[in-house]
Amino acid sequence: MRLIRLSESVIRRTCRCFSSDQTAVSSTISVTQKQNEVFDREKERQLSLVKAIEKVHVKHLGPEDECSLMMNKYLSTPYHVAMHLGEPYCKHSGIAVVNGSLWHMLQPLQEDSELSFVRFKDDKPFEVNKAFWRSCSHLMGAVLQKAFKEEVLVEPVRTPFIPLSAGCFAYDVNIPFKWEPTREELVILSREAYVIMKSKANFERLEVRPDVAMEIFEDNVYKKHFVEQLQGKGLNRVTLFRLGDFIDISRGPMMTNTDFFSPHRFVFTCVHSIDDYLRPKNKLLRFQGVALPADFDTHHTTWDPILQRAKKPVHYDLVPFQTKDDGDAQTDRQIEES
Q1: DSSP conformation class of 258
Q2: Phi, psi of 123 (to 5 degrees)
Q3: Rg of the chain's alpha carbons, rounded to an integer?
Q4: Using the 8-state DSSP alphabet, how is residue 186 labeled?
Q5: How far is residue 159's CA from residue 134's CA, in Å, rounded to a whole number?
Q6: CA–CA distance, 325 with 328 (Å, rounded to integer)
Q7: Per residue of the chain (338 residues), what is the pLDDT tens digit?
Q8: Per residue in 114-144, is it b (16+ CB within 10 Å) or e — as a string?
Q9: What is the Cα–Cα distance from 181 to 178, expressed in whole angstroms?
Q10: Among 201, 197, 204, which Cα is nearest to 294's?
Q11: DSSP secondary structure code for residue 5 in this structure
C-alpha cells in the first residue's frame, strides 16, 4: 500500500491510496450516497407531517429592532426572522436563542417564542464561538470523508471535546492504512476546505429516531456505538447535521452556512495517532486545525502564533461520554431536556 500525491490539475487535489484488498472495504461513495438517501427520505417524511400552516408569535428582543412577527409553525426559522430584520442579521448572526435555549439558525420554530441573535462581536460571544468551533470540526470531517481514493472506506469517528483554551478544533477518523501526511498534503486538505467554504453550503439540522440514525450509519461501527450509548442514557432522538453530503451526529447548534468562515483562515495544522476506544489494536488519526470567523481578520504576524499553537497535539476526550461536555454529541443538557 502506498500513498500517491495527485497533481494540481486534478479536481480532487488530495492524497489518495491504492489498497491491495479491495473486497475488504465498502466504497466511500456508495456509503455516502446511501446515508444521504435515508437522510433525505426522513427529511421529506417529517415535512409531510405538516398538514396545515399554523402561526406562532415571535418577539425579537433587542438591543435593536425589537419587534413582533407572525411566523409559520414548524416551517419558519430564526434565519427567516433575520431576513425580516435585514441583511446584517443574516450575515452576522451565528446562532439564535429561542425561549432561553440555544437554537440553530435553520431550526424550525415550534411555539410562540422570544428570540434573540448571538453575534461574534457581542459582549458575550462564548456560545457562538463554541458553535463556530463545532462547525469547523464538522467541515474538517466533510473534507476528510472525500479526501481519499473512492475505494478506501474512511470512517468518520467523532468530534472530540477540545476546550476553547486549547486553541484548536479536531476531528477523529479511522482509515485502513498508516499515514503521516506531509506539510504539502495538509495544505491540500486546507485548500479542499476552501472549496467547500466558497460553495456557501448550509449546515442542515435534522432530529431523527435512533433506528433511523442506525440505518444512516449502518456501515460505521463508531457511529452505531455512539447511538447505542445515547439510547442507554434515555435519549429517544438523535440530532444530525449535514454539510454537503457529509452527515454526522452533533448536538449543535452550528453556523448557518460556510459563508461564516474566513476563506483563507481555515488551516489543517497537524495529525497524530490516538488509541482506538473500540478496536484496541487499532489507532485512530486525530486531525487538528484552526480557523477564524469571516467577521474578523488578522495580520500574518498575529496569525502565525495562532497557527503554531494549534500545531501542538492535544489529547483531550479520547473516549466518548467520559467528559462532562462530550465534544460534539448529545450532552447532559439534552438528557435533562429529554
Answers
A1: G
A2: -65, -30
A3: 20
A4: H
A5: 8
A6: 8
A7: 333 333 333 334 344 443 334 333 467 889 999 999 999 999 999 999 999 999 999 999 988 899 999 999 999 999 999 999 999 999 999 999 999 999 999 999 999 999 999 999 999 999 999 999 999 999 999 999 998 887 788 999 999 999 988 999 999 999 988 888 999 999 999 999 999 999 999 999 999 999 999 999 999 999 999 999 999 999 999 999 999 999 999 999 999 999 999 988 999 999 999 999 999 999 999 999 999 999 998 888 899 999 999 999 999 998 988 765 544 444 333 333 33
A8: ebbbbbbebeebeebebbbbbbbbbbbbbbb
A9: 10
A10: 197
A11: P
What are 127's three cell numbers? 456560545
- Residue written as cell 494540481? 8
Cis peptide before 253 (omega within 30 of 0): yes
Specify the pTM. Answer: 0.88
Alpha carbon distances (Å) from 179 to 8, 140, 286 = 21, 17, 11
Nearest CA to 64 out of 125, 116, 121 is that of 116
Output the nine-digit C-alpha cell for 96: 439564535
* Alpha carbon distance 97, 238 (integer Å): 20
Structure-block grid coordinates of residue 330? 448529545
- Nine-digit cell string for 275: 488509541
